[in-house]
Specification:
The structure is a single chain. The chain is mainly β. The protein has one domain (about 10-80): Thrombin, subunit H. It contains no helices and seven strands. The mean pLDDT is about 80. InterPro entries: 6-blade_b-propeller_TolB-like.
Length: about 80
């Protein structure tokens, strides 16, 4: 959930489908983020300004993404050694 107090969003990874899902607190799907270079996403962190950091376990990558008008914008792609 968002760290900024009460939030209407829950961020969930689907490792087998390589997706980051955004849900409402009642479980309704808001959006889906996919990236061909994000394999087995996990370890989601949400900043106070609702920027999302997600790590790809198999791809050894870090993504910094931001929701802008219901579309995900990729801000950073970092390959981890």
């Amino acid at each position: 959930m968002s760290p900024t107090g009460p939030s209407d969003k829950i961020y969930v990874t689907n490792r087998t489908k390589n997706k980051l899902l955004t849900l409402t607190t009642d479980g309704t799907l808001i959006s889906t983020f996919t990236d061909p270079e994000l394999s087995s996403p996990q370890a989601v962190h949400v900043t106070p300004s609702e920027q999302v950091l997600v790590c790809g376990n198999y791809s050894n990558t870090l993504r910094w993404i931001v929701m802008e008008e219901k579309n995900w914008q990729l801000w950073l792609h970092r390959k981890m050694d």
